[in-house]
Design a protein that fits this description.
- The complex is a heterotrimer of chains A (316), B (293) and C (327).
- With 316 residues, chain A is mainly α.
- Chain A contains 15 helices and no strands.
- In chain A, α5 packs across α14, α8 packs across α10 and α9 packs antiparallel against α10.
- The radius of gyration of chain A is 24 Å and the shape is globular.
- Chain B has a domain of 162 residues: MetI-like (MetI-like fold).
- Chain B is 74% helix and 0% strand.
- In chain B, α3 crosses α8, α3 runs parallel beside α10 and α7 runs antiparallel to α8.
- The longest helix of chain B is centred in the C-terminal third of the chain and has 39 residues.
- Chain B is elongated, with a radius of gyration of 24 Å.
- Chain B starts with a helix and ends with a helix.
- With 327 residues, chain C is of the alpha/beta class.
- In chain C, the strands form 2 sheets. Chain C has an 8-stranded mixed sheet, with helices on both faces. A 4-stranded antiparallel sheet of chain C has the order 2-1-4-5.
- In chain C, β11 and β12 form a beta hairpin.
- Chain C starts with a strand and ends with a helix.
- The chains are: A mainly alpha (316), B mainly alpha (293), C alpha/beta (327).
- Chains in contact: A-B, A-C, B-C.
- Chains A and B meet through α1, α6, α7, α9 and α10 of A and α1, α2, α4, α5 and α8 of B.
Chain lengths: 316, 293, 327
Amino acid sequence: MSLYLIRRVGQSLVLLLLVSAIGFALIHLAPGGPLAQFTLTPGMTSADLARIAHQMGLDRPLPIQYWEWFRRLLVGDWGLSYRDNQPVLAVIGSHVPATLELMITSTLVAVLLGTWIGVLGALRRYSVFDYLATVGAMVALSLPTFWFGLVVIYAFSVKLAWLPAGGLYTIGDGSFLDYLHHLIGPALVLALVTVAIWSRYMRSSMLEVTNQDFVRTAIAKGLPRRVVIIRHALRNALLPMITLAGLQLPTLLGGALVTETIFTWPGMGRLFLDSIGYRDYPVVMGLLMFTALLVLLGNLAADMLYAVYDPRIRID
Amino acid sequence: MTLASASTEIAVPRRGGRGARRFARHRLALVGSCTILFLIIASALGPYINPYDDLHIDILHRFQPPFVGLHLLGTDQLGRDMLARLEMAGRISLTVGFSAMALSIAFGTIIGVVAGFYGGILGAVLMRLVDAVLCFPSIFLLLALAAFVEPTLLSITVIIAATAWMEVARLVEAQIRALRDRDFAVAAVALGASDRMIMFRELIPNAIAAVIVAATLNVARAILLESYISFLGYGIQPPIPSWGNMLNNAQEYLVSAPWLAIIPGAAITLAVTGFNFLGDGLRDALDPRLDVR
Amino acid sequence: MSAVLEVVDLSVQFHTDAGVVPAVNGVSFTLDRGETLALVGESGSGKSVTSLAIMRLTTGRVRGHVVLREADAQRDLLSLPEPEMREIRGSRIAMIFQEPATSLNPVLTLGEQIAEPMRYHRNMNRAAAWREAERLLDLVGIPDACRRLASYPHQLSGGMRQRAMIAIALACEPAVLIADEPTTALDVTVQAQILELLRELQARTGMALMFITHNLGVVAEIADKVVVMYAGRVVEQAPLRPLFERPLMPYTSGLLRSVPRLTSVREKLTAIPGNVPDPAHLPDGCSFAPRCEHAVAGRCDATVPDLEAADAEHLVRCVRWQELVAA
């Protein structure tokens, strides 16, 4: 297992370098480049700009600039926000919990529901349930998440008044229950895509596993049906799903952005959009890097989990 | 069906099972193609048939709900006919979708072929680069790029393509690599030249089939992405209509005139679903592995 | 010797897009207590499907009777409700399969997989089942049994995995063990070890063994009685020596002739010409006739021959057997 992990960590480091290089390239692509905030200040002469450029080290060769930037990245100096001059990392950090809570809740619901639908679809292949589940999943994947969110708000907040229309809390009520009440809408909307993808992959994974010899052995042992399905089939079918979970992270983050926008949920996605609106490039770039890093780490974590969970990798 | 039968399907397929699945997939793909065809025709020819013009502002008849009165799909906050707007927006959204797909397929294929054909360090570096770009969530990347550029039709198409080429590159690289490996293996076993041609004839169609499937699904994704960024205000800018930016306007009238939001969204869903159904059906039809099962 | 398993007129049909395929057609035989019966045939003869049908593990439509006789009762397995059948599987009748590499669950330890049938059929708690599992591993000849309990299938060699499968099968002391080509996927030396093990275990426990194979060499080593199958039907049945010394059905003699012998170096390998017929399109009359050197038009291809008794224990399905013996 250690060999596997070392190899994976090595790959992740390489990816980290490449991701940072792409990020660096993007910064310099931004209109006005790193000097953008200064060019807008009235009374700024080109001499002043040149002086600032020199101070910021922008006249040095690009590789050196990259190295400096990367070094600062590692120690946590991600620059200052244009809006309020706060450290970018701190600004991001204050918005992370809301997004994480949203992502974790919706993933939990989605995985449970998706697994159930997928397993049932596999066991009752070609049945009405299976057909509906397959078609339903494909339609769910085709729905624009933001539109679905609007529909949910219209149906459940405007018409039925069961759910709040957005935000984290109701003014005046900061209780945990109120928070949960606000969490339901966005979590369910975000869960939609994950349920669709998860159920489809779960179904095919389950089908593959139930056709394997060891499931036949389990049945030949006369074990109860439930034991065969869960202990033998499902436990093996879940293995590739761990990797899938890691691969779904970018989609999940993107979905979170859209969901947060519709439900005015104060997470990273919201921050990203707002920062773009304000042309707050340090925060925008910071978030881009941050999400990429999350994806990188998430995939690494998924692979590590896989290594632990699969005895064929865990043991020599 | 018991679990026993699920696990002991040794050689013989169950009665009607394979046939049922083929037909079902076939039917979905058919539905998908018809939907796409319908949308394309409606967008292209609709404006010529429709008595109303999408630009015609009619304050007296604004906020007309659909199916009551003269406007089939109602009117918006400026009294413009929703159906006409939908058709014109359809032209834009579908065109952007197809064009972005074409660009991303072209670029992805080039990268994939280069990486797969030359292999070695170049191939490895290119593929790691692809992996690195894939670490950035598409929407984040797309929005950031959208903020950097002037939002014209061309620029929007280009940046959507910029976030969609990676999967194509991976696909093509894997196919070319397999072809290359097989080729060496074949040479090593010293088969006749005719057999190598047969292998070529097998593998290139395989690669093309995979790209066709990817292309179809790519259009679906491109339409979805365009609608996202247009909805958020960074995509197609009014007065050019797109299904996405129609939804942007509709948000503030969600309570009073919900059809302004529901209708464009339904159109997007229809288009994307159609392409997804079609892509899925093509995948089933063209994937040789599934035939063996 | 009383019969422990009686198969009567067993038929298995698969309904496919191509029509109804009769994989097994009117197969009957008896397995006595402590006896080893070899079910012999080429691929496509229906021998595996027969064994799966006995365990009710097949998707096809099964007809006939499979009677399990035990001290207290006799039951027709094919008419039992599923929960009762589940009780019998793994405890009264056990089965081991051809590919030990894929027949074991890769994410569960050996101990867990051996303990499973004991915990569900014999209601043993985890500790007791674990101890018993260790004893079983020992019994099947796996060294260092105590540590092996915690290992995973991928850590074992092919022969060891098959031994583990045997341990699983024996966990509840079954009356009948069905072995579907258990040694086909193993090396020859390991093969011999496994056969030896099975013989030993059978002598010790008195269980009946139904051994499915296409390898006549293995049959000679292990069988008391042989049932030869072709295209879904029993074509010859006899105790071991009479079958090998005096095969009555041309197919059987063909099979025996095609086994290469070290003694006759100069002889060509004589294979039976042609191929096994497609079960969906069986020829009229005797299924073997198209490949049989003794086939006579008008007699062999008219109707399916009946299974006749050459003597008390020797059955043969051939219209010409008496003539061929005389010749």
